[in-house]
């Protein structure tokens, strides 16, 4: 079959067409969106974090056009874990005036092979891919292409059959969220199916997603990125990565959280700031990290995790999710005496024991698509509803509340 003719108008992908990215990098093959600014990236030495921040979770192309056909040239980076099943292609989702209108995966591109046992990587260059969305309504409309939440993509050009202009500012509040791979979207069905994207849609806000797989580690450069990002609402989901990596002890954790919050408050002294403790994760509730691959599962071609710490080590200051929840609640309670815009939410309100019974974590660490939806809907109901910290009235509700003073209404 003869492929359809390419639409005649070409528009280079530029930063003014992007939403949700904190920085962009011009490469030899296109524009690479970044979710951390250049200064933060220069201070980072962790390859896992570098990979995660380059995966454009929550980043979308946003433009206005009367085009009926839209093509996007992109160079995806496919991750391959040695010994594990092949990962599906990253998903690009098309929205027209806020409604789903198409989705596609990009074949081809580069390949990054990772050895789970050693962490060694190998990068192979591949050809670009072209995504095509046809049959769009011929009227003037707002179009968004949400980029994959778990696959790096260098964007080259848009091709359309009508002119393209950047989408206008809709005047919606901006919500900046920071968290782990769960916040980035691991296990979600697509970029609009991550729990922050779902919550943002329900809450009617513009999302800046700083969910960083393996990278919610209280890094000062991440706090500075949040400090310097224009935002009307900020949330932090902290804890699981600190246990995964066995990065610090209780003595260091408390001061590190205080420092992280202090830095954010330098740029956002009166912005509603919600601290969310970890979701339920049975393997690490009372067992410290590090988290390890389940080698027996890998031998069977499955990716699964296990807790490699010893529960007795909690006495020496090792962190578990139970310890972290207690400490985060204490810190917010202490600070809220002087910060009426600071709020706390126990992550088990979003995913707890009853949820785990019906929707267990498939790999013992990350939720699936249905669980992402449940978490997103609950977060929206708790945070964005009337009486929630991000809601119209801004007053605390029964389950999402400040640990000290009530916020002025």
Features of this protein?
409 residues; six-stranded mixed sheet; six-stranded antiparallel sheet; disordered C terminus
Could you give a quick summary of the protein structure above?
This protein is α+β, with helices and mostly antiparallel strands and 409 residues long. Helix content is 25%, strand content 26%.
How would you describe the overall organization of this protein?
This protein has 409 residues and is an alpha+beta fold. Helices cover 25% and strands 26% of the residues. Strands 1, 6, 9, 10, 11 and 13 form a 6-stranded mixed sheet that branches. Strands 2, 5, 7, 8, 12 and 14 form a 6-stranded antiparallel sheet that branches. The protein has a 5-stranded parallel sheet with strand order 16-15-17-18-21, sandwiched between helices. The longest helix has 18 residues. It starts with 8 loop residues before the first strand and ends in a 25-residue tail after the last helix. The C terminus is likely disordered.
